[in-house]
Amino acid sequence: MSIYDTLNKEQREAVFHTDGPLLILAGAGSGKTRVLTHRIAYLIEEKGVNPWNILAITFTNKAAGEMRERVDQLVGFGSESIWVSTFHSSCVRILRRYIDRLGYENNFTIYDGDDQKILMRDVCKMAAIDTKVYKERSLLAAISSAKDEMISPEEYELNAAGDFGKQKTAKVYREYEKQLRANNALDFDDLLVKTVQLLQTQPDVLEYYQQRFRYIMVDEYQDTNTVQFKFVSLLAGKYKNLCVVGDDDQSIYKFRGANIKNILNFEKEFQDAKVIKLEQNYRSTGNILSAANAVISNNVGRKAKSLWTENKEGEKIQLRQFDTAYDEAEFIAEDIRKNVGAGAVYNDNAVLYRTNAQSRLLEERFVSSNIPYKIVGGVNFYARREIKDLLAYLKTIDNGQDDLAVRRIINVPKRGIGLTTINRVQESAAKREIGFYDALRGLDLIPNIARGAAKLESFVALIEYFKGVARTESLSDLIKEIIEKTGYVEELETEDKEDAQARIENIDELISKIAAYEENSQDRDEKPTLSGFLEEVALVADIDSLDENQDYVVLMTLHSAKGLEFPHVYLAGMEDGLFPSYMTVTSDDPEEMEEERRLCYVGITRAKKELTVSCARKRMVRGETHYNKTSRFLKEIPEELMETGKTFREDLEIPTQNAYFQAKQAFKTKAFSTGKTAQQFTVTKGKKLDYTVGDRVRHIKFGEGTVEAITEGGRDYEVTVQFDKAGVKKMFASFAKLQKIK
DNA sequence: CTTGTTAGGATTTTT
DNA sequence: TCCTAACAAG
């Protein structure tokens, strides 16, 4: 019996078809990862392919890690020399070796969205563009889609003839590119664009990678954009051993340039491509799958396919409607608690929503219900202020050409270097066409900075000192030295007590991430370098931090949930205007609604055993109360598949723009809630706390600590606790749910 | 040059 | 509602 016997007919066909182009259309839950991993195993074990010649591209680092792990289990040895990585990190690896051929230095830095925006602001200032008329974000969006389509600034300009707005954009695009180059920096899109440019212009480099990657596999193929497709087709151009796996029904990144034509064009670009459909679903119950099929069948533009399953019908889909989003959150928390009581672990449950902002209410509810949870998304760890500051130090030490980084930290912590001084340096640097940091090193050449000169000099001396440390000491020592010498943490502490603790924790985490990086490199027999660390850090997504070994409920957006599965799934906020989003509802492009529906399909098919969909009649959005109808997607699920609780009333559909009605509602709500608060007031206060000053207590998130003070707040007790790990926190007793220890 | 105040924007999704 | 960036005052 071999490992391939457990596959079905189509899966086996896909695994055994090793040579020549192959397109696998894999429906949700049809075991595509199994096919990919078994295919790799088959290549190595049966076909004698050197692992070194295999490249597998996934969407996230997490998926890459999992794939490697699973291949590891199937293959005896050698899996470590397979390249399994994301598009972006593959490109970085190639560019680090060869980008000097395009006139960059090999230690280029990578700009994230925030960096791009700062750079764009400077560009607009320079080009005298009013950012009130042309927003940085929309300019960047235009440039990004141009890059996705591999349109250069010059081409963009040609296309812009006659269109004033486009001409402006073209001008900005050109200047933006110039600045990036001057900073020796690439943005995310550049990583792909420059790699393709490199492969197109350097025959020997192309030849090398074509030889090396004789077998290429691409996961989540439906979400690739034009430049990614070009990258893959160049690499596979010689041997054509390219296997792509995708599902057009799960294409949810069109807004980011994902090009559905890549699936359709595949057979054109690679003639005699074999196409295999995987249509048996192993993940979900019959009811869940029927619901998913029913919803997605409303889309016109899709490849015909029919997913089926041998699984049992299972539970009906639970539909709940609530008065407010608070009620919804409360229900979800309680229901999860019920699941856990019935034998599930927290990890079996996931709550999915359309926008990150929805996580807040849920989080509050989970804290007060003592349910461990993890929120994926929102602000990336490496995008936090304190982390970016420290990374800017590291970047400055590593690559003095990154002006953005230098300017970020020149006065952080405060050194009395103000805007006027910085601008003078900037002007002088621009005039002489040298970098900001280089200008700092030749201070005497800059006019009118007599007063600031001494401070600037000591800043330069500090950086030069760090460079020395970087040469002789380990990375861990370097970061500690930076924190020490700059007094960064002390500065934080004096600034604001509330935030400071969390920020210091983040810094500690950064230190351990650096240590982990050093360890990992040593395991791989690589030398840990500053550039290496910065590179790794630039490309991590929040989803990568999900850890199956920890038991928590996962909260995330539908987009982040792609590729994951859970026994119990909650789709929250199923309301028109939220999901599908307001933008989509008001748009006159029907394609957008189809994409939104695909997103819904992705959400439904994440569920293995039980799916709960919920909505609220009334929801606070940016401080305003919105009255939403139930989502049109709910109406697309056949009624017989659903079960509604007592709380659901479909008849009640509230008009959105009726001022009188809203006023009436608001009045009612107010009247009602005052009464309720008064009640709560007595309840909470009447209830005595079972701990007092000096007692040891436990908090769900912050761990153990000692109560330092208890004060009577407006309607609740305010408790100050010194936590062992998390520092001092102030919180409301009824919200914090502290438990006394012993 | 630093600090405090205010006005405006954000929330559709992210490597 | 909350956060950021721009502006004004010390």
From TrEMBL:
Extent of the signal sequence: none
SUPFAM superfamilies: P-loop containing nucleoside triphosphate hydrolases (SSF52540)
Domain UvrD-like helicase ATP-binding as annotated: residue spans: 5-285
GO terms for cellular component: cytosol; DNA helicase complex
Biological processes, Gene Ontology terms: DNA replication; recombinational repair; response to radiation
Catalytic activity, EC: 5.6.2.4
Residues binding ATP: A26, G27, A28, G29, S30, G31, K32, T33
Reactions catalysed, as given in the entry: ATP + H2O = ADP + phosphate + H(+); Couples ATP hydrolysis with the unwinding of duplex DNA by translocating in the 3'-5' direction
Gene3D superfamilies xrefs: 1.10.10.160, P-loop containing nucleotide triphosphate hydrolases, PCRA, domain 4
Keywords: ATP-binding, Coiled coil, DNA-binding, Helicase, Hydrolase, Isomerase, Nucleotide-binding
Coiled-coil stretches: 500-527
Domain UvrD-like helicase C-terminal: 286-563
GO molecular function: 3'-5' DNA helicase activity; ATP binding; ATP hydrolysis activity; DNA binding
Domain of life according to the entry: Bacteria
Family: Belongs to the helicase family. UvrD subfamily.
Entry protein name: ATP-dependent DNA helicase
Lineage: Bacteria, Bacillati, Bacillota, Clostridia, Lachnospirales
